[in-house]
Design brief:
Elements: E1 13-17, E2 20-23, E3 28-31, H1 34-37, H2 46-56, H3 69-82, E4 86-90, H4 93-110, E5 117-121, H5 130-134, H6 139-142, E6 153-155, H7 160-166, E7 171-177, E8 179-180, E9 186-187, H8 190-203, E10 206-210, E11 234-237, E12 248-252, H9 254-258, H10 274-289, H11 292-312, E13 317-323, E14 326-331, H12 337-346, E15 349-350, E16 352-354, E17 358-361, H13 369-384
Parallel strand pairs: 3-15, 5-6, 5-7, 7-10, 10-11
Antiparallel strand pairs: 1-2, 2-3, 4-12, 8-9, 11-12, 13-14, 14-17, 16-17
Helix pairs in contact: 2-10, 3-10, 11-13
This protein binds pyridoxal-5'-phosphate.
Main location: cytoplasm
EC number: 2.6.1.11
Cofactor: pyridoxal 5'-phosphate
């Protein structure tokens, strides 16, 4: 038996094609969840599949004691997209966060700071491992697993003043999702992000951008911090980076790389293996070839318009918030988001929830205008029944 730690949806999915998924009864579902922001290229993408098959016939795994062609190419791709300089590949989002935390601790340690601490944000989500959980605000996720890493302070998002109040000589890093996801969709404002950048520069504190969900094109740029015209010191990525092959990464500026982790400080058996990196390289190739970023930028106003129109028709729908193909819609607590998701599934539309009672929309980045229209029609029909 599987350990029952997920509230499952009761569907068994067997295959996918484009933005559609099919279950074991061959029912077709329009997917606006992308397996929680992973399947940016949708399902059964011919070019992506071909790249994986080719790599399988060459080499799946070596170890990090050797170079492999794919990891070098993936590093080039990620440094070019992120404008950062050094990359470490992991197998998941949480692992990327763990690595970023070690970078920050080591950077502070090299400056003579012991017991350094982190600043994170209310409604944050950074993963389920003990380190990442320490930065995750949701008390329900944290409580049974205490003690977590000491001294993490949670501050209001988009509120620079309260961050300034809590920064002190022990602070090694400020960690934020460029667009908060799981805790309720909430983009960092440009002023806020630029203010954090300034604060971190003044104090020589690391700014860690968690782009595990909002990155890799979901915002219409490779990384959502580009919208704020800043560069973080550390970037974490995963989810769409491998389009379904489990891979993550953290990337560092040259300055931070030179003053943090050295040989022997960190490692991973699988991280950066040829198969995972072949997936990463195929993702970057396809993004370029199919102009994925400009497609998202071009279609975002339509997605926003459709969601705003639907939301406007129901008094129990609150504000829509988001950036690019990462959108949230708040529901009044009298309408339970779980019930809406269920009705959507019955009408062959897959959505997600987030926050306290919000709908979350994470369509594949290959989604077309007609799919957005269909989603809007199904959602309208479903909401009418509440
Ligand atoms: C999903 C997610 C994580 C954790 O990633 P896993 O691969 O599940 O470990 C961390 N941060 C953010 C913002 C996420 O959305």
């Amino acid at each position: 038996m599987l350990l029952e730690v997920y509230n499952k949806f009761g569907l068994t999915l067997t295959r996918g094609n484009g933005v559609y998924l099919y279950d074991d009864k061959n029912r077709e579902f329009l997917d606006f969840s992308s397996g929680i922001g992973v399947c940016a290229l949708g399902y059964n993408h011919a070019h992506f599949n071909e790249a994986l098959k080719k790599q399988i016939d060459k080499i799946l795994h070596t170890s990090n004691l050797y170079f492999n062609e794919q990891v070098l190419k993936a590093t080039k791709n990620l440094t070019k997209a992120s404008k950062l300089s050094r990359v470490f590949f992991t197998n998941s989002g949480a692992e990327s966060i763990e690595g970023a935390m070690k970078v920050a601790r080591k950077y502070a340690f090299n400056k003579g700071i012991k017991n350094s601490s982190f600043i994170a944000f209310k409604n944050s989500f950074h993963g389920r491992t003990l380190g990442a959980l320490s930065l995750t605000a949701n008390e329900k996720y944290r409580k049974p697993f205490k003690p977590l890493i000491n001294g993490v302070k949670f501050v209001s998002f988009n509120d620079l003043e309260s961050v300034e109040k809590l920064v002190n000589e022990k602070t090694c890093a400020i960690v934020l999702e460029s667009v908060q996801g799981e805790g309720g969709i909430n983009p960092a404002s440009k002023e806020f992000y630029q203010g954090l950048r300034r604060l971190c520069d003044e104090r020589d504190i690391l700014l860690i951008a968690d782009e595990i969900q909002c990155g890799m094109g979901r915002s219409g740029k490779y990384f959502a911090y580009e919208h704020s015209e800043i560069l973080p010191d550390v970037l974490t990525s995963a989810k769409a980076l491998g389009n379904g092959v489990s891979v993550g990464a953290f990337a560092l500026s040259e300055k931070v790389a030179k003053n943090s982790l050295v040989a022997g400080d960190h490692g991973s058996t699988y991280g950066g293996n040829p198969f995972a990196c072949a997936a990463v390289n195929a993702v970057f190739e396809i993004y370029a070839k199919e102009k994925i970023l400009s497609r998202v930028l071009k279609l975002t106003p339509h997605l926003e318009k459709v969601l705003d129109e639907v939301a406007g028709e129901f008094d129990f729908c609150g504000e829509r918030k988001g950036l690019g193909f990462m959108q949230g819609l708040r529901l009044n607590p009298k309408v339970k988001v779980g019930d809406v998701l269920k009705k959507c599934r019955e009408n062959r539309l897959l959505l997600l929830s987030c926050g306290k009672n919000d709908l979350r929309f994470l369509p594949p980045l290959i989604t077309e205008k007609t799919h957005i229209d269909t989603m809007g029609e199904i959602l309208r029909k479903v909401l009418k029944s509440f």
